[in-house]
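Task: complex structure prediction.
Instruction: return structure tokens for all chains below.
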Amino acid sequence: MVANGPSASPVHKAASSESANGTNDSTNGSTSSNGHTAPASKPKLACFEHDREEVTRLLIQSLTDLGYEGAAASLSQESGYDLESPAVAAFRHAILQGQWTEAEELLLGGSTEEGGVSINGNGLALQEDVDQDVMRFWIRQQKFLELLEKQDTGKALMVIRSELTPLNQDTSKLHFLSSLLMCDNNYDLMRRAEWDGANGESRNHLLSELSKRISPSVMLPERRLAILLQQVKRNQISLCLYHNTAASPSLYQDHVCDRNDFPKTSFIELAEHAGEVWLVVFSNNGKRLASCGADGVVMIYEVPSFAVLHTLAEHDSGICALAWSPDDSMIVTCSQDKRARLWTAETGELLHAMSSFQEPVSSCVWAPDGKSFVTGHLDRGVGITQWDTSGKMLSEWGAAHRVQDIALAPDASRLVAADDKTTVFVYNFKTHELEYTIDMPARMGSVSITQNSRYLLVNMLDGEARLLDLDTPDDVLRKFKSYTPDAIQFIIRSTLGGANESFVAIGSESGHIYIWHKEYGQLVEEINGHGGFSCNSISWNPVDPKMFASAGDDSKVKM
Amino acid sequence: MGLSYNEYLTGTIIYGCKNCKTHLSNHEDIISRNFRGQHGKAYLFSTVVNTISGEPSERNMTTGRHVVRDISCRQCKKTVGWKYDRAYENSEKYKEGKFILEAELLCKVT
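Output:
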């Protein structure tokens, strides 16, 4: 049997040896505590509808994971259940100690005598449809790499020839491993093999990969109870329609968000603008709010007092769009006066006016490093240009189409531009190359990309918004049909927001605000925000998910 | 209302407002070139874009009585022609819902 516990194993795996030893002489141990019966006569209390053994073993594992190893050992003693059988403990030990031959035998059975260790057995129960040779390959690959690390190329070569090659696995992988024989030093080896050495995490990693193929009844998957609880939480959140908090729900009670906590009533109205308000945007830190519109003026408000800090009034005509720099220190504004302008957000001072175009500048986004920004224009031939913060044009992107709105993926991989008709152009942000185009069924109002850079939300002027996967743009993931407008002429923008970006908020010509659940495509709320006046844009406070701002033709910004 | 950009046409020849070059109609949408307006030659178009219409009024024209409304450029607000709401003569009914743009107030834009 196993000689001694795996001293080198990390905390959350250390229970194996103790529990394995513990049960053998458990009769003495448990009687010493006050009046507990011996495990032989376990009380058969109902364990609800769960299997007693499963629950007990889960508890032992999670006690160990939490660091209560004594409690885990005594639970194991009292119940008579082991977290793992001695064979599993031995296998774990063998892998972590680098005893590869034993590990293979323990895992896959067979009896060979080598190096004085003799093991007979049928190996551990595996998952169905597992290729044993694959598992062998992994073990031998680790052995090979460790030999290389020890500079023992001779033995390593033997392993390749007589142990790895006969398994008939992926030949390109084999070639790659052979090529590692040429590595000059260990640093080079680890870098090329993406492997962190015998003293790194590599053995644990190997064990973790192997254990996924072992039947879970024999070897419990890692951190099983924590994963189960996580699933419960996620499931409860997903069933919670009004879920709008970033905090993880308590396990003590079933989670449900109260509808009354969902933001749906306006608590403040800002009537600073002299004309229609077309866009509101919270700063990235949620401490400022900017609005702009037909009067050609940008208002910057302090949050949460909503006092006006600055009024930016240089544009000669309506302002279509604005964008906060990543650190909120600057703002770019785009106007129908055919120019973009750059301002400091703190003082409201105009830094630069970009050179003028033939047609309105419609949209802008900042590069994530804050050193440059990109504007979209309705000019044909110069749809997209990139500028630095001194107002110098860095490049024209060669976009021959007109651009009505642009969005940049937060990971700076792709830039998406909507033209003035029905085509979405997807560019590589770094190379400026056009990757592909998407045809939409109607004219568009806005494009936006989710925080994970994966999904694209396109709002169309026919009252429908669509969520697309940028990796597989041909499939429409979800459609949010809010209303049918009288005319498809006026730009209504949609936005993503709320806790975990769970919601899609869309304004409408009638002034109603439609809030959809992004994942479930369900209408969560319909709010009569601007009573008869068009609601043009919504911005969700990135820090406080219970607050969003809406802008309307009634010259008002509402919270 | 709300934010609204001018519509951009895609025809090979586009007529725009002479004052501000805003697109008004495609060459292909001309129904007849045989019209006259206050400034001389005028064309009848089936559709126009980026215009705002005024109040309807009854006018006696060379071809009879019509209910028309002036149309002006949405961008610079200059009058560019008129729209026929109603024609009283049966022979002129085809003009209903169509638009006149005066050649003198147009320019070709690319």
